[in-house]
Amino acid sequence: MIDVEGPERRNCIKEILMNAEGPVTGSQLANRFKVSRQVIVQDIALLRASGQDILATPQGYLAVTAFTGTKILRTFAVKHDFEGLEKELYIFVDNGGKVLDVIVEHPLYGELKGMLMLSTRRDVEEFMKNLHSSNAQPLSLLTEGVHLHTIEADHPETMEMIERDLEKGGILLNK
Questions:
Q1: CATH superfamily placement of domain 70-168
Q2: Beta-carbon neighbour count of residue 83 at 10 Å?
Q3: So where are the chain's domains?
Q4: Where would a tag sit more exposed on the chain, N or C end, judged by fewer CB atoms within 10 A?
């Protein structure tokens, strides 16, 4: 546990996120610094305001630098009902993709994006469990099922397999 004040704590948080191999939860940071989770939320907001690229995902906070490298990114336009959500996510991860986000186009607010960061079946199962237990609704319900996903993968063949399976499953929007 580290006992430091505001600016020094934020510098430590930044270092922790930059060196983390995965998401770090607000609760983990709060415990480490002996502060409330709300203090961490404020620290993250101040770090973002100072120009730090930090993503808030369902699994925790990530420094954007974690996404740089030789990965391939592709956006898929898809459509499905609530029951198709789990099927769609499994297609992405079972083929080796990582679901970075979900994006919908809202008539008033424009683009709305939710960070997902799902790369395994276990991630999808946890996401679905959280969806059901929270009584929240997926963003895609705002747009009658039409939405986008940004997918990260190591190889172009992965994207081809994902496209094939989405098309087979009737989920991929036609070009």
A1: 3H domain (3.30.1340.20)
A2: 7
A3: 6-66, 70-168
A4: C
